[in-house]
Amino acid sequence: MTAQHGHAGIAAAVERMRADGASGPAIAAFERRARQLLEGDDGLLPGDRLEPVAGIPRLDDLDGVDDGDPALRRVAVLKLNGGLGTSMGLHHAKSLVPVKGHRTFLDVIAAQVLGLRRRHDAPGLPLVLMSSFATEAQSARALRPHRGLGAEQFLQSREPKLDAETLEPVHWPAEPALEWCPPGHGDLYAALAGSGTLARLRERGIDWLFASNADNLGAELDPRVLAWAQDDGAPFVMEVVHGTPADRKGGHIARLDGRLVLRETAQVPEGDDSFGDVRRWRFYNTNNLWIDLRALEALVREDPAGPPLPLIVNHKTVDPRDDGSPAVLQLETAMGAAIGAIDGARALHVPRSRFAPVKTTDDLLVVRSDAYTLEGDGHLAPAFDGDPPFVELDPAFYRRLADFDGRFAGGPPSLRRCRSLRVDGDVHFGPGVTVEGNVELTGPGRVPGGVVLAG
User: Fold this and answer.
1) Which parts form a coiled-coil structure per UniProt (predicted)?
2) Does one domain contain both 82 and 166?
3) How far apart are CA 439 and CA 455, in angstroms?
């Protein structure tokens, strides 16, 4: 492919976005990523260029805040709600998966926000969802029973998948929807501006945004972080946790030329085995982010594309279910990468209780179990000591939610005293099973109800 053909392909993609009604900021952000690609900036971060991070301030050391602090009337809660749960074999909003009894992620989030309003005398605290074309209507229906919640939604951007050879927008008549993709959750900044949500929040006097993933129910608004960020003059704060084996695929922070940066899996060069070293990198991104909307507003005035985030090139096939379908590139960014793009950005070390993400059924088993208790105000409280249990289930039998549910038909086992549970093969669990210590099981088999597994 010549540079001329590459530019022509990108230009065609931009025209397709315009025809689709994409906003100015969404197009500007895509054009920036395309320039990065054409200029050979692949966003890769070799481990030997990075230094570990030390001396991160701790949430537990911050001063308390009065419940009626007026700053809480100038903050909004935002949840990333665009995912379809395809990693669990789902075709509906992941936030609609039952997580505690019959209560879904969205049910718990609603309870948390309503509880925050009561507890902090902040009746106008907004809940905002960044949804996708596939999740918007489903989520609106699911939230209707929560009276007085008044959640707002805006849509994440979408852009053409690019033919890996020509950089032309790919065509797939068999399923045209697969010709489009989201540009990663770094789209948050352009989507906030392009949807008008940023302007509407600012008009209502909202200065701060607390953003997190909808599948992390540990991410509740903590006024101490807001007070610290304001006092410190930090326009952006990323909450980080000490790494555990469960974080070995997550993004970690590091220093590059003295500046904080975020490194994601897709930014690791081939053959670089440094990424999974949780002892070296220590601090891992929770995607719980605090954003000063005044600073963001100034940034997008200067450049509609928003913060200059590193490029992440995802190599896929146009139909992710068909390895034989045409190869495509998806140009993405990570919203946490703003820690390296916004002057004055800070990291804050938070307890593990604020990071309970559910990316796979392994994670779902932990959160559904008694390792976490769900309180009346939606607070997800850890019931274990130290790190959360580490669960690794054979994906051949447990990856899809329907298969997972069938093997735990009697409910999740007790994991409160479990350190690790590894299952290789097809194992069905009866009701009332307890797992303690480090347990490994090999199938096929069945664990009878009421059994205590200890190791």
Assistant:
1) none
2) yes
3) 5
- 375 shares its domain with 348: no
Residues 187-224 pLDDT 10s = 999 999 999 999 999 999 999 999 999 999 999 999 99
Enumerate the known binding-site residues for UTP: 94, 156, 184, 215, 359
Binding residue positions: 94, 156, 184-185, 215, 359
434 and 301 in a common domain: no
Are 221 and 77 in contact by the 8 Å Cβ rule? The answer is: yes
Tell me the whole-structure pTM to 2 decimals.
Answer: 0.94
Binding-site annotation, residues for substrate: 185
Number of structural domains in the chain: 2
45 and 261 in contact (C-beta within 8 Å)?
A: yes
Of the candidates 165, 187, 83, the one whose C-alpha atom is nearest the C-alpha of residue 329 is 165
Token pair 């320039």: residue: 35
Same domain (yes/no): 298, 416: no
Is the bond leading into 444 cis (omega within 30 degrees of zero)? yes
Is 273 found in the same domain as 312?
A: yes
Kindly report the CATH number assigned to the domain that includes residue 236: 3.90.550.10
* pLDDT classification of 4: cutoffs 50, 70, 90: low
Tokens representing residue 98 in the block: 């039952």
Contacts (Cβ under 8 Å, ≥6 apart) of 395: none
Q: Count how many Cα atoms sit within 13 Å of the Cα of residue 88 in the half-sphere of its side chain.
A: 26
C-alpha distances (whole Å) from 345 to each of 74, 77, 442 are 20, 19, 47
